[in-house]
Amino acid sequence: MRESKEIIRNTLTYAQEQRPRSWWHFLSTLSILFALAATICVAPTWAIRLPASLLLGLVMVRMFIIYHDVQHGTILKGSKVVSALMYGYGLLVLNPPSIWSRSHDHHHRSVGQMYGSSIGSYPVMTSAAWIRASRMKRFSYVMQRHPITIAFGYLTIFLYGMCIRSFLVDRRQHMDAGFAVVLHAALIVLLAIFAPGLMLFLVVVPMTVACGLGAYLFYAQHNYPLVKIMAREDWTYLAAALSSSSYIRMGPLMRWFTGNIGYHHVHHVNAKIPFYRLPEAMAGIVELQTPGTTSLSPRQIIKCLRLRLWDVQQDCMTK
């Protein structure tokens, strides 16, 4: 393998935004979101509303990846309109910018470290630490990584973890988290009173789909069979990107819905590569072509969810 600096330098070719493409992806995704929301509002039966609601949840994941790239300063930087719209989107999907900046930036700086990498990510405990841990600490650890917690990420991870908990811990720094909760609660209450069908199909179902899928994707990006967890003295930025971040194999449709976030190892090598250029970067740089992989097949999902502890002696995650 070439030197780390050379590999990262080679990614700079792909870390160039193609502004017209960015606008196309942003505007087309926004248009589809509005079209699906309008369909849900005017459709006469649940037989139309439910499929539209499920699709809305999937497209919300794509828009979140665009929000993610905007927050990284990767695409559409300097556009006040986009910044305002994405700020509002972050509030609506219970991922306010202050939380994203604090947790996600730390995540990029520490992913794959044996200690200190749980901010902005799922915690990873070693087998030795598990033996020493109290029952309460074990229970907390298991619950944070439990499939039910991930599946109901709308309530557990986004509403409570990202917003309510963050606001209670530091109200001044995370005032937008409190505002996101109030905004979301007001929307739910108003729709429950005046349009319960819209509450279900316009908010609850798509948020459950989007947050559940998003929570699992984030889990599988750093909790997969071949993941490596390193002591701080052995940790390097490139090693964490290539050995602690997965490539999630998907078909074209799911790659579109998830904004190519399955190419997560490439994103961790250089977060300035626009999401629509991640496949191009992987194809063009040899060192990015042999990552640890997983997929969204039921078998692979079960394999990832069964992982529990990092075993230092075996140098792998164990069940």
Layout of helices and strands, plus pairs?
Layout: H1 4-11, H2 19-42, H3 46-72, H4 80-92, H5 97-110, E1 125-126, H6 127-132, H7 135-145, H8 147-151, H9 153-169, H10 175-194, H11 196-222, H12 237-243, E2 247-249, H13 252-257, H14 264-269, H15 278-284, E3 293-295, H16 298-305, E4 309-311, E5 316-318
Helix pairs in contact: 2-3, 3-4, 3-11, 9-10, 9-11, 10-11
Q: How would you summarize this macromolecular structure in one to three sentences?
A:
This protein has 319 residues and is mainly alpha-helical.
Q: What is Rg?
A: 20 Å
The number of helices is 16
Give the DSSP E fraction (strand runs of 2 or more residues): under 5%
Helix content: 55-70%
Q: How are the strands of the largest sheet arranged? A: 1-4-5
Q: Averaged pLDDT, please?
A: 94
Question: Which class of secondary structure composition applies to the elements?
Answer: mainly alpha
| Distance linking N and C termini | 31 Å
- Number of structurally distinct domains: 1
Q: Low-confidence spans: pLDDT under 50, at least 5 residues?
A: none
The oligomeric status of these chains comes to: single chain
Q: Report the biggest beta sheet as strand number plus sense, adding barrel if it closes.
A: 3 strands, mixed
Shape: globular
Helices and strands, in order, run as: HHHHHEHHHHHHHEHHHEHEE
Q: What is the number of E strands? A: 5
